[in-house]
Design brief:
The complex is a heterotrimer of chains A (about 425), B (about 280) and C (about 400).
Chain A (H helix, E strand, L loop, with lengths): L2 H32 L8 H28 L7 H21 L7 H41 L2 H6 L3 E2 L3 H5 L11 E2 L2 H32 L2 H16 L2 H22 L10 H25 L2 H8 L5 H30 L2 H6 L17 H10 L7 H38 L2
Antiparallel strand pairs in A: 1-2
Helix pairs in contact in A: 1-2, 1-3, 2-3, 2-4, 4-15, 7-10, 7-12, 8-10, 9-10, 10-12, 11-12, 12-15, 14-15
Chain B lengths: L30 E12 L2 E12 L3 E5 L6 H7 L10 E9 L2 E2 L7 H7 E4 L10 H11 L6 H14 L3 H4 L12 H14 L4 E5 L7 H14 L4 E5 L3 H7 L2 E6 L2 E7 H6 L4 H7 L5
Parallel strand pairs in B: 3-8, 3-9, 6-7, 7-8
Antiparallel strand pairs in B: 1-2, 1-4, 4-5, 9-10
Chain C lengths: L4 H44 L4 E10 L2 H5 L7 H4 L4 H13 L7 E7 L2 H7 L8 H12 L3 E5 L2 H4 L12 H32 L4 H15 L2 H13 L9 H25 L3 H9 L4 H29 L3 H5 L20 H9 L5 H31 L4
Antiparallel strand pairs in C: 1-2, 1-3
Helix pairs in contact in C: 1-16, 8-11, 8-13, 8-15, 9-11, 10-11, 11-13, 12-13, 13-16, 15-16
The chains are: A mainly alpha (about 425), B alpha/beta (about 280), C mainly alpha (about 400).
Chain lengths: ~425, ~280, ~400
């Protein structure tokens, strides 16, 4: 029998048993109650308990069985597993029916199960983080067994080309050994991130200052959601925009100044990434500026400061931890951004300080390493995980620092409000 | 000199509007701020109803009255802090140094340079103690060189009676001080720009009794140099520190008088009820 | 004696000017951001709107014997270069299925070649002089025209620009989103309910909280690495399938839904919980019958926003292989599929100029869906917004 037939048979029988459990349980509970005994719970609650007792253990047994069968390749006959789980379901039905007694807390039992289910759901979020960590660390370790960690961190040449020959057992044919020096990739990543921040931080911060301090209420209620449209545009769309529209403009501007510019220069993705991040900075900064207590502004104004001086010398310094924290989050976002650079930045690892040259980034190389028809075991494929590990570590620490800063900012103003 | 009650609403005849009922003979009587028929609306609701009052230089005038009576609103009219609230409309005259401060032509920043303010809750800037004081004089070009600035900071802190407590930690944040110290820092900050008038909006209501006493002593010393107008909830405080007292009720000045007379022998029934604690 | 008002005002002039400058500069920054938005949308509309029109050409089809082997023979020699090759390829297939066609003739509007299409739209094209003259002549006779491009919405990907469409990507998106929602919605809501209503405030709960906040800020591509290493390599979920794509995106959407749900639950005032406890409800009954129904609009809004985010995501899907070339629509969860943003990515990489238009057209469709979803969320929030 096919797996899906087995599955539907299992599901069908289980559903049937569940229905039987529900109605039998309710009928029995109703009978007991009609018999005059005071029960701890409603008949429906007994019925649901019977259903849980029937289906719960059976599903657990079959899931464990399937897991053993598929992943650990333990020899279990499929039919036997099916029969076993259904037998468990039948036993569960019997136990559930026996528990329909006046002194049994069916509701409490159900709620314990629900609470357990909720807790399990909450655990999945932890499992996800660990999943990311484990999957990346595990594969990255395999990479570092092949290539030295030190070379990876400090090397200036990224040339994975020959590695797949090595994986195919033909290492001698490669002209040179594969080299995995990630410095040029990080240089490119930081260059593009820096350009993005040069666009996003001034524009975003000033826009936030205007919205929070100067704008009439109508402008503010309109401007904030409009800016947020920028944040909702998919990154693949920005990538297309950067490659097709912005890059040619950058090239012609550079040429007008007598500079040479590659079509996949670092400026175009940098600027477009900056545009994407503007609402991120403006929205967070606007919140932070708004949460600077009004008494600060009044204190400065009452000393005869102009509005501009009040903002520059009192409001912004007070909001600074929050603004820095927003900027750190924005940096972490720019570092991990993929589609814009995949579509608009270069593929060539290039250690240069000239933003008009083509440069590649960490995320571009991760995508490049994982989209070819390469063997998973090859060093190039695994290098993607090593790069991912560094990216994970950097963004995680940026996030943590930023969370700590914003928390301190909030605490500071709570304390000061005497 | 024993003139009748000021307010038209209490039915007394008004020989000279805005003048206090009686005058403190020992005090100096130069006029600082003259207010005539001042009304203020928040949207549709009228918060101040045709106030007339004369405020005198180098004196402490206390504004008392039940909460919501408009005394803080009135105080904020004197340095145009109400401009910051949207939907506020002001009519009438607030005259200082021969100029109507509510005119559009009047630069409110220049006004606030001459009319300082201390708030209910201490609000030191998130800067060092030194910077809290030096910042405004520097912006106003009152000092040009570092030694001058140091001198001015020390003088302001001495005048505010805070110097001895903070002279060793001038570069710690202003927020690290205790509540009472913070409020004295705010007073030092206000006097450092050498204003003519200092407005105080319930300056001690967030403080403990000991800090309150320190600040009351301070006010008494400061009135030699500045005109002080203070809002207070605390009747004893008004009686202790003020030369003149104005009693506000529902947006009107019911009675304005020499403090001693006001507390000993109030001219109006409402003021008497309030002072003796029958309501408010 | 202190300064007069006029002296102070004179000193203030420069400072007022600087203050005004800050106002104008900051206003300019907001304006600049608005201009970016305007530039972006006008650029996309300019590039993408032509994709909704496609050149069609009226030709006479002669079902002769040669045409049964090579479709091109059915058409006039000169015209045949102007007709889409996908149409020519269909002729022998049609003749095999309907043998009675042999010998008959038929005049029909058929899809024109993309070069004709680009020429008519005034874009760069590769037609030679003679072909251009012919197209001009046909256009004058009304035998070539731009019509609404139904092909774009009814076919899958193709190597020929004129015959490629977004249908298979749209179906792939729907299936992927179904998987995403089916996983992320229940788990997300359950997690939020646990944290907000049941969890004791201890280290463990705080750990979960920090975790969720971090999860929301992890670069999306790392979720792709997880999908590849765990779902595909460890659990053996088929590569490129909506199932693995949906599972990967579900993990990304999870924090969005959890955070939105917690906010919604928190906005339900405690008075309602106390009232329900007061009439003897258990904690679960309070949550199920009183808190959850009141929080539902907020939960839905958050889920829709999370869904819109997931729908625009590309990077993790590339890593799990969902950039396949999918010409035929397939509605299976385990077969290779592509999604709209991935389709946009694929087209953006095609060398032919005509694909630029298709890419922008696909982008417009994607943006329209996202704007619709977000507008729904906003309306939902406005409609059910409640002040306690």
């Amino acid at each position: 029998m096919q797996t899906d037939q087995l599955l539907s048979l299992f599901g069908g029988v289980l559903l049937l048993l569940g229905l039987i459990a529900f109605f039998l349980g309710r009928a029995k509970a109703a009978r007991v109650r009609a018999g005059g005994s005071t029960m701890h719970a409603q008949p429906d609650q007994y019925a649901w308990f019977a259903v849980l007792a029937t289906a719960g253990p059976a599903i657990v047994v079959s899931a464990v069985g399937a897991f053993l069968l598929l992943l650990l390749e333990v020899e279990i006959p499929q039919l036997g597993l099916l029969a076993g789980s259904l037998a468990v379901a039948a036993i569960g039905l019997g136990v559930g029916m026996r528990q329909v007694r006046p002194d049994f807390h069916a509701r409490k039992a159900i709620e314990r199960v629900i609470r357990g289910a909720l807790l399990t759901a909450a655990l999945i979020s932890i499992l996800t983080t660990f999943g990311i960590l484990i999957s990346i660390v595990f594969e990255a370790l395999r990479f570092f067994q092949m290539h030295s960690f030190w070379e990876f961190i400090t090397g200036t040449v990224w040339n994975p080309g020959a590695s797949f020959l090595a994986a195919a057992g033909r290492a001698e044919e490669g002209a040179s050994a594969a080299q995995f020096g990630s410095l040029p990739l990080f240089a490119g990543t930081f260059m593009i991130t820096a350009i993005a921040m040069l666009v996003a931080i001034p524009v975003g911060l000033l826009a936030a200052i205007y919205m929070a301090e100067f704008a009439p209420r109508g402008v503010r209620t309109l401007a904030k959601p409009t800016l947020e449209v920028l944040a909702g545009i998919p990154t693949v769309v920005y990538g297309f925009f950067a490659a097709i529209t912005v890059a040619p403009i950058i090239v012609s501007i550079a040429n007008a100044f007598g500079l040479d510019a590659a079509f996949n220069n670092a400026v175009a993705p940098g600027i477009v990434m900056g545009i994407m991040i503007i609402p991120f900075i403006s929205s967070l900064s606007d919140d932070v500026i708004n949460s600077v207590p009004d008494s600060m502004r009044q204190g400065a104004l009452a000393l005869g400061m102009t509005k501009g001086e009040t903002i520059r010398d009192v409001v912004i310094p007070a909001a600074l931890p929050g603004i820095i924290s927003a900027s750190l989050l924005a940096v972490s976002r720019a570092l991990g951004e993929t589609m814009i650079v995949v579509m608009a930045a270069g593929m060539r690892p290039n250690l240069t300080a000239n933003p008009f040259e083509d440069m590649t980034t960490v995320t571009v190389r991760i995508v490049a390493a994982l989209t070819g028809d390469l063997e998973f075991e090859s060093a190039e494929t695994l290098s993607a995980f090593a790069l991912g590990l560094v990216l994970f570590a950097v963004t995680l620490s940026l996030n943590l620092v930023s969370v700590l800063m914003i928390r301190r900012f909030r605490e500071k103003y709570r304390v000061n409000n005497l | 000199m024993n003139i009748q009650a000021v307010s038209r609403h209490t039915g007394g005849s008004v020989p000279e509007v805005g003048q206090p009922h009686t005058r403190n003979e020992t005090a100096c009587h130069d006029l600082s701020i003259r207010v005539r028929d001042l009304s203020l609306w928040y949207g549709d609701s009228q918060a101040l109803k045709g106030l007339d009052i004369d405020l005198f230089q180098k004196n402490i005038t206390a504004l008392i009255g039940p909460s919501g009576c408009g005394k803080s609103t009135f105080l904020r009219c004197l340095n145009r802090m109400n401009d910051l609230i949207p939907g506020v409309r002001i009519e009438g005259l607030v005259e200082m140094d021969g100029r109507d401060v509510n005119q559009v032509k009047m630069d409110e920043v220049a006004l606030r340079r001459r009319v300082g303010m201390v708030f209910q809750k201490p609000n030191p800037f998130p800067k060092s103690i030194y910077e809290n004081i030096a910042y405004a004089p520097r912006m106003h070009d009152l000092v040009s060189r570092k030694p001058e600035q140091d001198e001015l900071v020390e003088k302001a802190l001495r005048d505010a009676g805070l110097w001895e407590e903070v002279k060793d930690k001038l570069h710690q944040p202003g927020t690290s001080l205790s509540g009472g110290q913070q409020q004295r820092l705010c007073i030092a900050r206000a006097i450092a720009v050498q204003p003519d008038v200092i407005l105080m909006d319930e300056p001690t209501s967030a403080l403990d009794p000991i800090s309150t006493a320190t600040i009351e002593d301070l006010m008494d010393r400061l009135k030699k140099q500045f005109t002080i107008i203070t809002v207070t909830h605390n009747m004893q405080q008004a009686a202790r520190v003020a030369d003149y007292t104005a009693f506000f009720h529902l947006g009107e000045i019911i009675e304005y008088n020499d403090t001693n007379t006001m507390f000993a022998n109030p001219a109006t029934r409402k003021a008497e009820d309030y002072i003796t604690g029958r309501y408010g | 004696m202190s300064q007069t008002f006029d002296e102070i005002s004179a000193q203030l002039r420069r400072r007022h000017r600087r203050s005004a400058r800050l106002k104008w500069v900051s206003m300019g920054a907001l304006g600049l951001a608005g201009l970016f938005l305007l530039w972006f949308f006008s650029d996309m509309l300019g590039k993408g709107l032509p994709a909704f029109q496609q050149a069609q050409i009226q030709v006479e089809i002669d079902y002769n014997e040669d045409a049964a082997r090579m479709g091109r023979a059915a058409l006039d020699r000169d015209l045949s270069r102007l007709v889409s090759r996908t149409f020519e390829r269909m002729i022998p297939v049609q003749m095999r299925e309907n043998p009675e066609l042999l010998g008959s003739k038929e005049t029909r509007w058929v899809l024109a070649d993309s070069e004709v299409d680009q020429y008519l739209k005034g874009h760069r094209h590769k037609l030679n002089d003679a072909q251009r003259a012919l197209v001009d002549e046909l256009e004058a006779e009304g035998r070539v025209e731009l019509r609404f491009n139904t092909t774009f919405f009814t076919t899958g990907d193709s190597k020929m620009p004129e015959a490629s469409g977004i249908l298979s990507a749209a179906v792939g998106t729907i299936m992927t989103m179904l998987v995403t929602l089916a996983i992320a919605f229940p788990i997300g809501v359950m997690t939020a309910v646990y944290l907000e209503e049941f969890a004791p405030d201890n280290r463990f709960t705080q750990a979960i909280e920090i975790n969720i906040n971090n999860l929301a800020a992890i670069p999306s591509i790392l979720f792709g690495l997880l999908g590849l290493a765990i779902f595909i390599n460890f659990f053996g979920v088929p590569r490129s399938s909506p199932l693995v794509g949906g599972m990967t995106l579900a993990l990304m959407t999870l924090p969005v839904i959890i955070i939105a749900t917690r906010t919604a639950l928190r906005s339900v005032p405690d008075a309602i919980r106390h009232a329900a406890f007061g009439v003897g409800c258990s904690r679960w009954q309070v949550v199920r019958d009183h808190v959850l129904p009141l929080a539902m609009p907020g939960i839905m809004t958050g889920s829709i926003i999370g869904l819109a985010q997931a729908m625009g995501e590309t990077a993790p899907l590339i890593i799990v292989g969902m950039v396949a070339f999918i010409p035929d629509v397939s509605a299976s969860l385990t077969e290779a599929a592509t999604v709209l943003p991935a389709q946009v990515f694929t087209w953006a990489g095609e060398p032919e100029k005509a694909f630029v238009e298709k890419t922008a057209g696909g982008i417009l469709v994607l943006l329209a869906i996202l704007i619709f979803l977000n507008a729904t969320a906003v309306i939902l929030r406005k409609k059910f917004e409640r002040r306690w």
